[in-house]
Amino acid sequence: SDDDSYEVLDLTEYARRHHWWNRVFGRNSGPIVEKYSVATQIVMGGVTGWCAGFLFQKVGKLAATAVGGGFLLLQIASHSGYVQVDWKRVEKDVNKAKKQLKKRANKAAPEINTLIEESTEFIKQNIVVSSGFVGGFLLGLAS
């Protein structure tokens, strides 16, 4: 309703005012898990990786089933005469979408490169946890 009031939280201001937030999530926070033993780091990475891999597998199967089922139903409806598909219009729209994606990809390239560099630096700083995560992720996909 119109009577409800909401507080807007600016995360940048919040991070400046709360020093613990800066220590944990700030640029110079450093590896958080380095205070744990190597075995603990591997287990932490492995468990989180397994969870992520397992969820990725389940969501991937669900998405593939939904998309495949949708295409199957569309084909059945098309062959039965319930649906007429204007393939020239579909092709035109797909080409238009490809052009827009290329434009956006060219604009986003510096941001993507920065993200890749930050991710690479994080993995280098936390190599033990990262390797545990990758192993757990692969096990999660296989489960």
Defining key terms:
single chain; 143 residues; mainly alpha; 5 helices; transmembrane helix; autophagy; mitochondrion; FUN14
Description of the molecule:
The protein has 143 residues and is mainly alpha-helical. The protein has one domain (41-142). 78% of the residues lie in helices and 0% in strands. The protein has five helices and no strands. It has helices at residues 11-17, 19-25, 38-80, 87-125, 127-142. Helix 1 crosses helix 2 (19-25) and helix 3 packs across helix 5. The protein is extended. The termini are far apart. 8% of the residues are buried. The mean pLDDT is 80.
Which shape, going by the Cα principal axes?
Answer: extended
**Multimerization status:** single chain
Counting helices, strands and paired strands, the structural category is: mainly alpha
Kindly state the percentage of residues in helix: over 70%
Unreliable runs, pLDDT <50, ≥5 residues? none
- Cα distance spanning the termini: 47 Å
Order of helices and strands: HHHHH
What does the largest sheet look like?
none
Rg result? 23 Å
- Count of helical segments? 5
Q: Could you tell me the number of beta strands?
A: 0
Residues in β-strands, percent: under 5%
Total number of distinct structural domains: 1
Mean pLDDT: 80
